Amino acid sequence: MPATDRVLFFDIDGTMLSTGGAGQRAMELALTEEFQLDFPFEGVLTAGRTDRGIADEIFQKYSLTDTIDERNRFMRSYLERLPQCLHDLPGELLPGVRPLLESLARIEHVVLSLLTGNYAEGAWIKLRHFQIDHFFQTGGFGDHHPLRDDVARLALQMTSRHLQKPLHGRQSIVIGDTPADIRCARAIEARVLAVATGTYTSRELEPHAPDHLFEDLRSTSEVVQALLSPHPVEESTE
Protein backbone atom coordinates (compact mmCIF):
# COMPACT_ATOMS: atom_id res chain seq x y z
CA MET A 1 0.00 0.00 0.00
CA PRO A 2 1.19 3.52 -0.69
CA ALA A 3 1.81 5.74 2.31
CA THR A 4 -0.44 8.42 0.83
CA ASP A 5 -4.16 8.07 0.25
CA ARG A 6 -5.30 6.15 -2.82
CA VAL A 7 -8.55 7.76 -3.93
CA LEU A 8 -10.97 5.55 -5.85
CA PHE A 9 -13.63 7.42 -7.79
CA PHE A 10 -16.61 5.19 -8.56
CA ASP A 11 -19.12 5.86 -11.29
CA ILE A 12 -22.64 4.67 -10.41
CA ASP A 13 -24.85 3.63 -13.34
CA GLY A 14 -23.49 0.69 -15.31
CA THR A 15 -20.49 0.42 -13.00
CA MET A 16 -21.90 -0.36 -9.56
CA LEU A 17 -25.58 -0.86 -10.34
CA SER A 18 -28.23 -1.10 -12.98
CA THR A 19 -31.49 0.70 -12.31
CA GLY A 20 -33.34 -1.15 -15.05
CA GLY A 21 -33.86 2.18 -16.77
CA ALA A 22 -35.38 3.85 -13.70
CA GLY A 23 -33.40 7.06 -14.09
CA GLN A 24 -34.43 7.66 -17.68
CA ARG A 25 -37.99 6.57 -16.91
CA ALA A 26 -38.23 9.10 -14.06
CA MET A 27 -36.95 11.85 -16.36
CA GLU A 28 -39.42 10.83 -19.06
CA LEU A 29 -42.31 10.99 -16.60
CA ALA A 30 -41.19 14.39 -15.37
CA LEU A 31 -41.07 15.70 -18.94
CA THR A 32 -44.35 14.16 -20.09
CA GLU A 33 -46.35 14.92 -16.96
CA GLU A 34 -44.89 18.28 -15.96
CA PHE A 35 -43.75 19.69 -19.32
CA GLN A 36 -46.25 17.93 -21.65
CA LEU A 37 -43.58 16.52 -23.95
CA ASP A 38 -44.26 13.36 -25.95
CA PHE A 39 -41.37 10.90 -26.42
CA PRO A 40 -38.85 13.36 -24.88
CA PHE A 41 -35.83 11.06 -25.15
CA GLU A 42 -36.21 10.25 -28.84
CA GLY A 43 -32.77 10.81 -30.34
CA VAL A 44 -31.19 11.74 -26.99
CA LEU A 45 -28.19 9.68 -25.83
CA THR A 46 -27.71 9.31 -22.07
CA ALA A 47 -24.87 6.83 -21.41
CA GLY A 48 -21.83 8.50 -19.86
CA ARG A 49 -23.44 11.94 -19.81
CA THR A 50 -24.23 14.22 -16.91
CA ASP A 51 -27.78 15.02 -15.84
CA ARG A 52 -26.99 18.67 -16.47
CA GLY A 53 -25.83 17.86 -20.00
CA ILE A 54 -28.97 15.83 -20.68
CA ALA A 55 -31.15 18.65 -19.35
CA ASP A 56 -29.27 21.16 -21.53
CA GLU A 57 -30.07 19.11 -24.62
CA ILE A 58 -33.72 18.59 -23.66
CA PHE A 59 -34.29 22.26 -22.92
CA GLN A 60 -32.67 23.29 -26.20
CA LYS A 61 -34.29 20.57 -28.32
CA TYR A 62 -37.81 21.39 -27.17
CA SER A 63 -37.28 25.14 -26.72
CA LEU A 64 -38.30 25.01 -23.07
CA THR A 65 -38.17 28.22 -21.05
CA ASP A 66 -34.63 28.09 -19.74
CA THR A 67 -34.65 29.76 -16.35
CA ILE A 68 -33.32 28.68 -12.96
CA ASP A 69 -36.87 28.12 -11.75
CA GLU A 70 -37.74 25.89 -14.72
CA ARG A 71 -34.49 23.95 -14.40
CA ASN A 72 -35.22 23.38 -10.71
CA ARG A 73 -38.78 22.34 -11.54
CA PHE A 74 -37.44 19.73 -13.94
CA MET A 75 -34.92 18.43 -11.40
CA ARG A 76 -37.48 18.27 -8.58
CA SER A 77 -40.00 16.52 -10.83
CA TYR A 78 -37.41 13.93 -11.77
CA LEU A 79 -36.20 13.35 -8.21
CA GLU A 80 -39.77 13.00 -6.90
CA ARG A 81 -40.43 10.18 -9.38
CA LEU A 82 -37.09 8.40 -9.08
CA PRO A 83 -37.74 6.35 -5.89
CA GLN A 84 -40.95 4.85 -7.29
CA CYS A 85 -39.30 4.06 -10.61
CA LEU A 86 -36.45 2.32 -8.77
CA HIS A 87 -39.04 0.28 -6.90
CA ASP A 88 -41.02 -0.61 -10.02
CA LEU A 89 -38.27 -1.51 -12.46
CA PRO A 90 -35.98 -4.58 -12.22
CA GLY A 91 -32.69 -3.00 -11.16
CA GLU A 92 -29.81 -4.76 -9.46
CA LEU A 93 -26.48 -4.27 -7.78
CA LEU A 94 -23.94 -5.49 -10.31
CA PRO A 95 -21.87 -8.66 -9.70
CA GLY A 96 -19.00 -8.31 -7.25
CA VAL A 97 -19.74 -4.72 -6.26
CA ARG A 98 -20.68 -5.25 -2.61
CA PRO A 99 -17.75 -7.61 -1.81
CA LEU A 100 -15.38 -5.18 -3.54
CA LEU A 101 -16.63 -2.17 -1.58
CA GLU A 102 -16.51 -4.13 1.67
CA SER A 103 -12.92 -5.20 0.99
CA LEU A 104 -11.77 -1.72 0.01
CA ALA A 105 -13.45 -0.11 3.02
CA ARG A 106 -11.26 -2.21 5.31
CA ILE A 107 -7.97 -1.10 3.75
CA GLU A 108 -6.04 1.75 5.34
CA HIS A 109 -5.28 4.76 3.12
CA VAL A 110 -7.99 3.83 0.60
CA VAL A 111 -10.61 6.54 0.12
CA LEU A 112 -13.87 5.71 -1.65
CA SER A 113 -15.44 8.62 -3.48
CA LEU A 114 -17.95 9.19 -6.28
CA LEU A 115 -17.58 10.54 -9.80
CA THR A 116 -20.98 10.49 -11.45
CA GLY A 117 -23.06 12.41 -13.91
CA ASN A 118 -26.09 12.08 -11.64
CA TYR A 119 -27.60 15.00 -9.82
CA ALA A 120 -26.23 14.68 -6.27
CA GLU A 121 -29.62 13.93 -4.72
CA GLY A 122 -30.38 11.41 -7.45
CA ALA A 123 -27.06 9.66 -6.82
CA TRP A 124 -27.80 9.28 -3.11
CA ILE A 125 -31.34 8.06 -3.83
CA LYS A 126 -29.93 5.30 -6.04
CA LEU A 127 -27.17 4.34 -3.59
CA ARG A 128 -29.62 4.21 -0.68
CA HIS A 129 -32.01 2.07 -2.70
CA PHE A 130 -29.26 -0.52 -3.23
CA GLN A 131 -27.92 -0.06 0.33
CA ILE A 132 -24.38 0.97 -0.57
CA ASP A 133 -24.59 4.67 0.31
CA HIS A 134 -22.67 4.18 3.57
CA PHE A 135 -19.47 3.40 1.64
CA PHE A 136 -19.30 6.98 0.33
CA GLN A 137 -19.35 10.44 1.83
CA THR A 138 -18.42 12.79 -0.99
CA GLY A 139 -17.59 13.11 -4.66
CA GLY A 140 -18.35 14.96 -7.86
CA PHE A 141 -21.87 15.14 -9.30
CA GLY A 142 -23.57 16.35 -12.46
CA ASP A 143 -25.76 19.14 -11.06
CA HIS A 144 -23.97 22.05 -12.69
CA HIS A 145 -21.47 20.68 -15.23
CA PRO A 146 -22.51 19.41 -18.67
CA LEU A 147 -19.01 18.07 -19.30
CA ARG A 148 -17.80 15.03 -17.40
CA ASP A 149 -14.21 16.33 -17.34
CA ASP A 150 -15.42 19.16 -15.12
CA VAL A 151 -17.20 16.68 -12.86
CA ALA A 152 -13.88 14.85 -12.45
CA ARG A 153 -12.17 18.09 -11.41
CA LEU A 154 -15.01 18.77 -8.98
CA ALA A 155 -14.74 15.25 -7.54
CA LEU A 156 -11.03 15.75 -6.86
CA GLN A 157 -11.68 19.14 -5.29
CA MET A 158 -14.54 17.95 -3.07
CA THR A 159 -12.66 14.86 -1.91
CA SER A 160 -9.61 16.99 -1.11
CA ARG A 161 -11.83 19.31 0.90
CA HIS A 162 -13.44 16.36 2.68
CA LEU A 163 -10.04 14.93 3.65
CA GLN A 164 -8.70 18.39 4.48
CA LYS A 165 -5.56 17.76 2.47
CA PRO A 166 -4.47 18.50 -1.09
CA LEU A 167 -4.88 15.63 -3.53
CA HIS A 168 -3.53 15.10 -7.02
CA GLY A 169 -5.21 13.07 -9.71
CA ARG A 170 -2.16 10.82 -9.87
CA GLN A 171 -3.23 9.50 -6.45
CA SER A 172 -6.56 8.40 -7.86
CA ILE A 173 -8.22 5.83 -10.07
CA VAL A 174 -11.58 6.19 -11.81
CA ILE A 175 -13.74 3.07 -11.99
CA GLY A 176 -16.25 3.39 -14.81
CA ASP A 177 -18.01 1.70 -17.70
CA THR A 178 -17.95 4.23 -20.56
CA PRO A 179 -15.42 6.02 -22.77
CA ALA A 180 -16.52 9.24 -21.03
CA ASP A 181 -15.30 7.80 -17.71
CA ILE A 182 -11.92 7.09 -19.29
CA ARG A 183 -11.65 10.55 -20.82
CA CYS A 184 -12.60 12.40 -17.65
CA ALA A 185 -10.01 10.44 -15.67
CA ARG A 186 -7.31 11.66 -18.03
CA ALA A 187 -8.49 15.23 -17.41
CA ILE A 188 -7.25 14.90 -13.82
CA GLU A 189 -4.26 12.65 -14.66
CA ALA A 190 -5.94 9.69 -12.98
CA ARG A 191 -5.70 6.09 -14.02
CA VAL A 192 -8.75 4.11 -15.09
CA LEU A 193 -10.21 0.72 -14.34
CA ALA A 194 -12.88 0.13 -16.96
CA VAL A 195 -15.57 -2.49 -16.52
CA ALA A 196 -17.78 -3.83 -19.30
CA THR A 197 -20.97 -4.05 -17.26
CA GLY A 198 -22.76 -1.09 -18.83
CA THR A 199 -23.72 -0.39 -22.43
CA TYR A 200 -20.16 -0.76 -23.77
CA THR A 201 -18.43 -4.09 -24.34
CA SER A 202 -14.79 -4.67 -23.49
CA ARG A 203 -14.01 -4.60 -27.23
CA GLU A 204 -15.57 -1.12 -27.44
CA LEU A 205 -13.76 0.12 -24.33
CA GLU A 206 -10.32 -1.24 -25.20
CA PRO A 207 -9.46 1.34 -27.93
CA HIS A 208 -9.84 4.08 -25.31
CA ALA A 209 -6.82 2.61 -23.49
CA PRO A 210 -7.94 2.14 -19.88
CA ASP A 211 -5.15 1.07 -17.54
CA HIS A 212 -7.14 -1.98 -16.49
CA LEU A 213 -10.13 -3.63 -18.17
CA PHE A 214 -12.42 -6.18 -16.56
CA GLU A 215 -15.56 -7.88 -17.83
CA ASP A 216 -17.10 -7.36 -14.38
CA LEU A 217 -16.04 -6.87 -10.76
CA ARG A 218 -16.57 -10.44 -9.56
CA SER A 219 -12.90 -11.24 -8.95
CA THR A 220 -12.45 -9.14 -5.82
CA SER A 221 -8.79 -9.97 -5.21
CA GLU A 222 -7.75 -9.24 -8.81
CA VAL A 223 -9.67 -5.98 -8.91
CA VAL A 224 -8.24 -4.85 -5.56
CA GLN A 225 -4.73 -5.70 -6.77
CA ALA A 226 -5.27 -3.61 -9.89
CA LEU A 227 -6.66 -0.69 -7.92
CA LEU A 228 -3.78 -0.69 -5.45
CA SER A 229 -0.96 -1.27 -7.92
CA PRO A 230 1.62 1.55 -7.84
CA HIS A 231 1.27 4.43 -10.24
CA PRO A 232 4.34 4.75 -12.54
CA VAL A 233 4.99 8.15 -10.93
CA GLU A 234 5.06 6.53 -7.50
CA GLU A 235 7.42 3.82 -8.71
CA SER A 236 9.80 6.37 -10.26
CA THR A 237 10.07 8.30 -6.97
CA GLU A 238 10.74 5.29 -4.72
Structure notes:
With 238 residues, the chain is an alpha/beta fold. It has 2 domains: 6-19 and 92-236, Rossmann fold; 22-88. The chain contains 10 helices and 8 strands. The chain has helices at 22-34, 51-61, 68-88, 97-105, 120-129, 148-163, 179-187, 202-205, 220-228, 232-236; strands at 6-10, 17-18, 92-93, 110-115, 139-140, 172-176, 191-195, 212-214. It has a 6-stranded parallel beta sheet with strand order 5-4-1-6-7-8, with helices on both faces. Helix 5 (120-129) links the parallel strand 4 (110-115) and strand 5. Helix 1 crosses helix 3, helix 4 crosses helix 9 (220-228) and helix 6 (148-163) crosses helix 7. The longest helix is centred in the first third of the chain and has 21 residues, at 68-88. It is globular. The mean pLDDT is 93.
Short description:
This protein is α/β, with parallel strands linked by helices and 238 residues long. It has helices at 22-34, 51-61, 68-88, 97-105, 120-129, 148-163, 179-187, 202-205, 220-228, 232-236; strands spanning 6-10, 17-18, 92-93, 110-115, 139-140, 172-176, 191-195, 212-214. The chain contains ten helices and eight strands.
Mean model confidence by pLDDT:
93
Poorly predicted tracts of residues:
none
Q: What Rg do the Cα atoms give?
A: 18 Å
**How many separate domains?**
2
| Overall CATH architecture of the largest domain | 3-Layer(aba) Sandwich
Question: Can you count the beta strands?
Answer: 8
Which descriptor suits the 3D outline?
A: globular
Count of individual helical segments: 10
* Helix content estimate: 40-55%
**Which class of secondary structure composition applies to the elements?**
alpha/beta
Name the CATH superfamily assignment of the largest domain: HAD superfamily/HAD-like
What is the topology, as strand order, of the major beta sheet? 5-4-1-6-7-8
